[in-house]
């Protein structure tokens, strides 16, 4: 009997990118003509509220097999037992090689992300073009630390807040309340490689480009997971370890509201917790899982 010449099909793998913190997702359903194609921005924050936009990986599961372009090295995240390594993102566009710009599959759980059109309807479709470019333009690197187009993967909202949050106007009037997703996860499946290449280019068009190649350490699992976040530096480890948010007024949410070309700060989320359940909320807190809920957000409400 002749031997079979059939070749076993490759076992599909998966790519997972977890976004957290001050991230605004733009036009994911590609239905808003006032915005760019489906993408995400990480806004800059002022010196008095410094956040670190970053890309990170867990060295127990993923290996950085190559880094070219001469940029800063990845460094370990404190208080994670040196398991997580990260690199700051500063005025760049991030792209996944072999994942062309497209329309992601938006899963129903994405609607658990806070929607600006719901909590601040007055600012609907009023964009500050330094943050939200039109057409195929890029955002202004003086205001946006990182920008990324999405491809044909799936998008979901995950890691719900532990208690409800109420958005309140400048005068304290409530607009909406609810439990909100603290992560947006972009998944590519199937993915037929043990390596993932990330290309980082400067938003101002200046060289050099950087290339990061990540490799799955466990071929039997065939999953490459990365994190892209924008957190207070003291909160990076909390986001990576998925620790609970603290019930403090999330004043840093105003930097997500900056996408609107409106002079007002806009509604900010306030925690709704039973008295005595948690320490007294701090009026000056905000901007991370330790200091309060700070996104992500869906500014176009789609």
Features:
single chain, 302 residues, mainly beta, eight-stranded mixed sheet, seven-stranded mixed sheet, 20 strands, 37% strand
Précis, in short:
The protein has 302 residues and is mainly β.
What separation lies between the terminal Cα atoms?
60 Å
- Radius of gyration, taken over Cα atoms and rounded to an integer in Å: 20 Å
Please state the average pLDDT score: 89
Low-confidence stretches: 279-287
As a percent range, the share of helical residues equals under 10%
- Listing every helix as H and every strand as E from the N terminus to the C terminus, the arrangement reads EEEEEEEEEEHEEEEEEEEHHEE
Query: Helical region count?
Result: 3
How does the major sheet shape up?
8 strands, mixed
The backbone outline, from C-alpha atoms, is: globular
Taking strands numbered 1, 2, ... along the chain, how are they ordered across the largest sheet?
Answer: 6-7-4-18-1-15-12-9
Q: Based on DSSP secondary structure assignment, what is the total number of beta strands?
A: 20
């Amino acid at each position: 009997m002749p031997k079979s010449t059939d070749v076993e099909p490759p076992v599909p793998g998966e790519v997972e990118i977890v976004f957290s913190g001050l991230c605004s997702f733009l036009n994911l359903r590609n239905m808003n003509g006032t915005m760019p194609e489906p993408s995400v921005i990480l806004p800059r924050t002022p010196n008095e509220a410094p956040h670190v936009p970053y890309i990170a990986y867990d060295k127990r599961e993923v290996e950085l097999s190559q880094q070219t372009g001469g940029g800063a090295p990845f460094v370990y995240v404190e208080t994670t037992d040196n398991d997580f390594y990260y690199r700051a993102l500063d005025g760049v566009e991030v792209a996944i090689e072999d994942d062309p710009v497209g329309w992601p599959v938006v899963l129903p759980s994405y609607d658990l992300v806070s929607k600006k059109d719901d909590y601040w309807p007055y600012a609907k479709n009023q964009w500050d073009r330094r943050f939200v470019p039109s057409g195929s333009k890029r955002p202004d690197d003086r205001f946006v630390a990182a920008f990324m187009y999405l491809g044909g993967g799936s998008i979901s909202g995950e890691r719900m807040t532990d208690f409800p949050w109420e958005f309140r106007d400048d005068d304290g009037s409530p607009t909406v309340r609810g439990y909100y997703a603290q992560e947006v996860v972009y998944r590519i499946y199937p993915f037929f490689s043990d390596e993932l290449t990330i290309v980082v280019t400067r938003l101002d068009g200046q060289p050099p480009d950087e290339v990061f190649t990540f490799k799955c350490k466990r071929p039997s699992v065939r999953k490459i997971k990365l994190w892209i976040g924008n957190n207070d530096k003291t909160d990076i480890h909390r986001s990576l370890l998925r620790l609970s948010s603290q019930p403090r007024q999330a004043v840093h949410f105003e930097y997500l509201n900056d996408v609107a070309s409106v002079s007002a700060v806009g509604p900010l989320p306030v925690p709704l917790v039973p008295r005595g359940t948690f320490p007294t909320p701090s009026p000056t807190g905000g901007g991370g899982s330790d200091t309060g809920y700070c996104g992500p957000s869906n500014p176009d409400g789609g």
